[in-house]
Specification:
single chain; mainly alpha; Arc Repressor Mutant, subunit A; Tetracycline Repressor, domain 2; 11 helices; globular; disordered N terminus; disordered C terminus
Length: 211
C-alpha cells in the first residue's frame, strides 16, 4: 500500500511559496534598497497578503537571509564539492569560480543591497556568518584537506586558505560593484585569471610552477 503523500505535497507547497516571496523580495530590495523596502511592497509584488509572508518568514531580515542563501547556493555547496572530487583541482576551481562569480554578478544589484546591509546590521551579519559562511567553509576545508592528502595541492593551512580564496572572490566582486571598468567589461574572464593565480600558489611542484 503506498504511503500517504500529504507531507511531501505540503513541503512542495511551502517551498514554492517561500520561493515566490524570495523572488518578489529580491526585486523589491534591488529597486528600493533593504531599509526603504517594506513587507507590504514585497507582498504586493508577490501577489499575496502581507500576513501571508509571516507564515513563512519571521521578519524582513529572515527574507534577506533567504536571499543570501540563494546567492550563496548554500544547499548545493556540499554536492558541488563532492562532484568536483572527480575532477583535477585546477579544472574544478576554474569551473566553480566561473559558475559562482557569474551567478553573483548577474544578481549584482541584489548583492550590493545585501552587502551594504550586512556592513551595518550586526545581528544579520552574525546570522550570516553562523548559518551560511561557517557551514560553507567547513565543506570547503574538508574538500581541500582531501586534496592535500591526495597530493593535488601543497600542504597549507586549510581554514586560512579557503578564506583567502573567498576573500579574493569577494574583493573582485566589490571592485566590480565600485565600477572598475576592467572587471565590468571583462567579468567573464575573471574566473580563469583568478583560478590561475590561486593555482600558482597551490601548485605542489617546486617553485610553484605548473608542469
Amino acid at each position: 500500500m503506498p504511503e500517504p503523500r500529504g507531507d511531501g505535497v505540503r513541503d512542495l507547497v511551502v517551498r514554492a511559496r517561500r520561493e515566490q516571496i524570495v523572488e518578489a523580495a529580491t526585486r523589491v530590495f534591488a529597486e528600493k534598497g533593504f531599509r526603504r523596502a517594506t513587507t507590504r511592497e514585497v507582498a504586493r509584488t508577490a501577489g499575496i497578503s502581507e500576513g501571508t509572508i509571516y507564515n513563512y518568514f519571521e521578519d524582513k531580515d529572515a527574507i534577506l537571509m533567504a536571499i543570501l542563501d540563494r546567492l550563496n547556493e548554500t544547499e548545493r555547496r556540499a554536492e558541488d564539492f563532492e562532484e568536483g572530487m572527480s575532477t583535477d583541482f585546477r579544472g574544478f576551481l576554474e569551473e566553480y569560480l566561473r559558475r559562482r562569480m557569474s551567478s553573483i554578478w548577474e544578481s549584482r544589484e541584489v548583492f550590493r543591497v545585501v552587502l551594504s546591509e550586512m556592513l551595518v546590521n550586526a545581528e544579520l551579519r552574525e546570522r550570516y556568518l553562523r548559518q551560511v559562511v561557517e557551514p560553507a567553509m567547513r565543506i570547503a576545508e574538508e574538500n581541500f584537506r582531501s586534496r592535500m592528502e591526495q597530493g593535488e595541492v601543497r600542504q597549507t593551512d586549510a581554514p586560512l586558505a579557503m578564506r583567502s580564496v573567498a576573500g579574493a572572490v569577494l574583493g573582485v566582486l566589490v571592485l566590480g560593484l565600485l565600477g572598475d571598468e576592467e572587471i565590468g567589461s571583462r567579468s567573464d574572464e575573471v574566473p580563469d585569471v583568478l583560478a590561475g593565480l590561486l593555482i600558482h600558489g597551490f601548485d605542489v611542484t617546486e617553485g610553484g610552477r605548473n608542469e
